[in-house]
């Protein structure tokens, strides 16, 4: 049976689910033990998979987290694409962000904060985070271009996608670095409002 247009096949959905399970397992171990103290064998054992299966999905230990980094943005992009075209962009982003937050599966705030700090300080993970950010921009550009009625290859829409994702990243890192971090959603929306998206 073929997948409906725009919808991943059952096989691909299972692959995505396995990637996310590996990523969540790695995230929990990195947050609890630290990156250096966690081995690929530890991740595979905790995830209930073989080393061969791990390497089928991840080329190296530092690649394991990518689905955790990108999954929230994937939800945000899909939600933003469904918002009414006439809705102000700031309001549309807020609604899409709320939906992406509710869909996230790493529920322990302290674990998430530790993980973000690790990702910001381990060079190999930082590089993967930056690379994932470029891929996420590529997902976001078509949606923003359609809302703005401009070509996808315009400099302005790429700048807008970059600014929006950077706002998310800065808010996340700020939240993770605070002794009393407050509410991540409110911090992120404050960062988005600072961009004055509706004036762009």
From TrEMBL:
Domain of life: Bacteria
DNA-binding region: 39-58
Annotated Gene3D superfamilies: Tetracycline Repressor, domain 2
Name of this chain's protein: TetR family transcriptional regulator
Annotated SUPFAM superfamilies: Homeodomain-like
UniProt lineage: Bacteria, Bacillati, Actinomycetota, Actinomycetes, Kitasatosporales
Domain HTH tetR-type: 16-76
Organism: Streptomyces caniferus
Keyword terms, alphabetized: DNA-binding, Transcription, Transcription regulation
One Pfam family cited in the UniProt record for this chain: TetR_N
